[in-house]
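Q: I'm writing a short explainer about (2Fe-2S)-binding protein for a general audience and would like to include a description of its predicted shape. Could you first generate the structure from this sequence?
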Amino acid sequence: MVKLTVNGQPAQFDVDPEMPLLWALRDVLGLMGTKFGCGIAQCGACTVMVDGMPRRSCVTPVGSLEDASITTIEGLAVGDRPHPVQQAWIDEQVPQCGYCQAGQIMSAVALLEENPEPSEEEIARAMTGNYCRCGTYPAIRAAILRASGQETGPPAANASERTIDRG
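A: Of course. Here's the predicted structure. Afterward I'll give you a sentence or two in plain language.
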């Protein structure tokens, strides 16, 4: 039996301790926001926070997390109010297919908790390893800048002028 706190609530997992956290969250708790992408910690779709740090849940054995505090995409909002990063994602109209967005948002939250006013270069560096097949990287950067209070223009004002920049 592995005991954790998930999104502020106690949780117990009576599973093989080698089960990846991703599957414990999805299959045992029914938290479907965290996505399976690659299974080898390379794409970032499965990113969650473990004790405040971003972690790839697809390769993290649930048994290694006894008494840890896990935050998933479902745990960011406060009541009906989205987390500021989630609101910035909405304002900047970031998602296209949306599959990678939970992991992107979790990585952005971790970045802003560590560095509340990152430069575009720091954003690019921190978000490396979170892949978006739709190529919404410019919108992701704009949303992170907005969430940090550095973007002051109207939401998605220049969305049609963005070009794909993967770096």
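A: For your explainer, you could say: The chain is about 30% helix and 15% strand.
Q: Perfect, that's easy to follow.
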